[in-house]
Amino acid sequence: MQIKKSFLYTLSLILHINLILISVTNALNQDGLILQKAKLSFYDPAGSLANWSDRDATPCNWTGITCDNKESVVSVILYNSSLSGSFPISLCLLPSLSTIDLSENSINSSLPLSISTCRNLTFLDVSQNLFVGPVPSTLSDLIFLRYLSLEGNNFAGEIPTTFGNFRQLEVLELSNNVLTGTIPAALGNITSLKKLELAYNTFSQGDLPPEFGNLTNLEELWLTNCNLLGTIPQSLGRLSRLTNLDVGQNKLTGLIPSVIFHLKLIEQIELYDNGFTGKLPAGWLKLTKLRRFDASRNKLTGVISNELCELPLESLNLYNNRLEGSIPDSIAKSPNLQELHLYGNQLVGKLPSELGKYSYLRTFDVSNNSLSGEIPGFLCHNGALEELVLINNQFSGIIPLDIVKCRTLMRIRMRGNRLHGEVPPEFWGLPHVYLLDLHGNAFSENISSLIYGAQNLSNLDISDNKFSGSIPSEIGSLKKLGKFYANNNELRGEIPSTIVNLGQLGLLNLCNNKLSGEIPKGIKSLTMLNELNLANNDLSGKIPGEIGELPVLNYLDLSNNHFSGLIPISLQNLKLNKLNVSNNQLSGYIPDFLFLDIYRDSFLGNPDLCLNDSHSCNSRSGGNNGVLSWIYWLILVALGVVCLVGLVWLMRKYKKITKTKKGIATSTWTSFHNLDFSELEINDSLEEANVIGRGGSGNVYKVVLSNGEIMAVKKLLETPYENKNSEFEVEVETLGKIRHKNIVRLWCCCSKENYKLLVYEYMINGSLGDVLHGNNTRTFLDWPMRFRIALGAAEGLSYLHHDAVPSIVHRDVKSNNILLDENFEAKISDFGVAKVVKSVANGGGVETMSMIAGSCGYIAPEYAYTLRVSEKSDIYSFGIVIFELVTGKPPIDPEFGDKDLAAWVRTTLDKNGIDHVLDPRLESKFKEYIIKVLDIGLLCTSAIPINRPSMRRVVKMLREMRASMDSTIPI
Ligand SMILES: *[C@@H]1O[C@H](CO)[C@@H](O)[C@H](O)[C@H]1NC(C)=O
Ligand SMILES: *[C@@H]1O[C@H](CO)[C@@H](O)[C@H](O)[C@H]1NC(C)=O
């Protein structure tokens, strides 16, 4: 009885507590509870969802939430809220939900197939995140969907053909993913589409589907960089509502079809970077709305049609084609014309004389043609001209008054023409000009003292002209001047003493003039000076000892002047690549530290100069002979050493080869893809002649199979870092499954008793290290290419660290392990020492290694003493790769002394400033971006690992930068 009573009591107590609980949670309605659950999917470091409180009755006032009048949630809008984590699929439990916008976050899951349970969805935007995995084929089950954007993620695989079933979809954005396969013709069924964007994916080669002609409601079609082949289909002429057609950066060929003239509403046509041939079609006058036309970088021939130029165009880009004839006068009549880029053709004749008269012409570039006549007089008539670029034509006459007074000009390049006459004083002082390039004309008279007005001038090139008079002392007030070329003129008088005020000056070339007097006092304050060329003048006096205090000087040519006195001993502070003091009247001894082969011809024609006191200083010819015999002796010794080293190396290699020829006995193949080649076929090609790379763990061979396919095969010999064989296989298996556009494909692998083979896709452009620092001098990587490589490599690493399951730490990130495909797209390779990290869930997997992996100059400082591997050490190495891209220098180099590149960058930045760090071969117009990328490199190489940004963050920063860089115009 007693027991029963207490039992009942307990029961009622439990019920009571439950009731309390229910009434508390009941405060929040059902939709609110669902959102609470969805919230658990997110990692919310910025507290964007802080006011999602379960004490509210409804979620209708929460950030990002909108309800209808029945307090049901209809939209969840959380763009740019710093959210990561996975897609909150529980949102689909909200019965009235019609809008989801999670764009611009860092969500890094896949998009689940069950997205189709979001029945009432009309709007889904998850663009600019880090989604991975396939595009769910079930999306088309969302029958009310009107807007779908998956743009800017890592969605992989093919576009589902089920997408052809959408009935109401108006916007479909899939650009900037890693989608493969070809573009499905079924998309041509979505006749409701107004906007279709598929640009920048990794599709296989394929045609532009003719079925797209059925999309008669289409207003925008964006297919840039989609690997399109063939011609533009005739059916596109049916897209009568199209305003924007962009098929740039593909492999389209054939004529530009005249069906484009059916696109009555078209405002912009982008055909650049394809293989279009033939003449421009006729019929342009039908396109009354056309404002922007770009067919640059094709193989177009014939003339620029007059009709096209009669349209009120805003911008016309036809550069780098094979166009002939003259530029139609009618182009000058367009009241909208702002941008005209016709460089790199075979255009002849005069420029339209009224160009610029009727519009706000802003940039004008007709370089590398055969244009002649005078520069027209109205280019800056409406005061908008910023860029005037006329390089390598046959323009003659003088600089017109309109240009002389054009105070908006920023970039002026007239090099390689036949312009002459005085450059009017006012022109020298235009206030915004940063680049003034008059090289190779016949300009004469003085450089005006009004030049002090050009306070933004950083690059001044007046070489190869007939300028005379003296260099005005006002030049010393140009605080930003970095390069000054005035060589090959008829300049006289002294080098102005004010020149020593140019704190930014990196290059001063005054050779081949008639300058006299001495080198100005105080020259040591030119702390940025790299190159000083004063050869072939009438300069005299002593070579000042101060020159040795110029911290970054590496080029010094004082030959063919009248310098006298001793060679200053302070030169030993410098690391000169070029030194020439030949043909002067120097005397005394050549200091010992200058006995180097590169200086063999540096002291010619100084009769009173001699070697050192062990030789006769009086015998004129004897002195020089002494120098030479000394130097030859040194060379002989050096050659001997080289030979000996070579011999030892050869012997060791021979041993290795004979060793590896044995033992093609039992082996196991693992294949990750359908392949049709045999092991023997590969084995036969593993010869010394086919070696394309050598690494610590083995050689890489180029193997051409009988079916014509090319593979790269890596042969791993002993693997001292492996304890158990199975570990190797686990890693290989993991890598075999990886599909990412920035990671080299592993086709298959093979394990034998004493070695292992890894078969990769072959990368035609070799490694980044080779292209930047190696023998591959064919290719110069300009800044846009380097940037793309940085971003690609970052995306590959980010995938390994954050998206691969399990996570992978590469452990040997370096420029030699970043390969470049035929489009110079970066792919991470060489996972020889990569490590699968078991617990990186919170971004902090750490494992202790038995041995150091990695390469000299790339190893993070903490790694050397802790032997702990985390993705933070990869990030450090990636930072070094960024330094290589920005400086053009290798990770270790004798130039740095006992420092490595990381230390060199930091000290040079502190001591000498940014301009001494950046690769001087990169165009200065990108400087702002180069510096931003350098900053990322500095972050990545922070001494303290936790201060290094995650690769995901690095990718985000670079992508944001890309968006703003894309607007920069090439040449
Ligand atoms: C100075 O030149 C830079 C390019 O080097 C340009 O971006 C900037 O707008 C110019 N500033 C002025 C005040 O003209
Ligand atoms: C130095 O100049 C002289 C005379 O112009 C030339 O013959 C010699 O080759 C030059 N030496 C070097 C190292 O450039």
Automatic annotation (TrEMBL):
Keywords: ATP-binding, Cell membrane, Glycoprotein, Kinase, Leucine-rich repeat, Membrane, Nucleotide-binding, Phosphoprotein, Receptor, Repeat, Serine/threonine-protein kinase, Signal, Transferase, Transmembrane, Transmembrane helix. It comes from the Eukaryota. Its EC number is 2.7.11.1. The keyword Nucleotide-binding applies. InterPro entries: Kinase-like_dom_sf, Leu-rich_rpt, Leu-rich_rpt_typical-subtyp, LRR_dom_sf, LRR_N_plant-typ, LRR_R13L4/SHOC2-like, Plant_RL_S/T_kinase, Prot_kinase_dom. ATP binds at K715. Residues 686-969 form the Protein kinase domain. Gene3D superfamilies: Phosphorylase Kinase, domain 1, Ribonuclease Inhibitor, Transferase(Phosphotransferase) domain 1. The keyword Transmembrane helix applies. GO terms for cellular component: plasma membrane. It is a single-pass type I membrane protein. PROSITE patterns: PROTEIN_KINASE_ATP (PS00107), PROTEIN_KINASE_DOM (PS50011), PROTEIN_KINASE_ST (PS00108). GO terms for molecular function: ATP binding; protein serine/threonine kinase activity. GO terms for biological process: defense response; post-embryonic development; response to other organism. It catalyses: L-seryl-[protein] + ATP = O-phospho-L-seryl-[protein] + ADP + H(+); L-threonyl-[protein] + ATP = O-phospho-L-threonyl-[protein] + ADP + H(+). The chain crosses the membrane at residues 7-28, 630-651. It is found in: Cell membrane. Belongs to the protein kinase superfamily. Ser/Thr protein kinase family. This is non-specific serine/threonine protein kinase. It comes from Penstemon smallii. The lineage of its organism: Eukaryota, Viridiplantae, Streptophyta, Embryophyta, Tracheophyta.
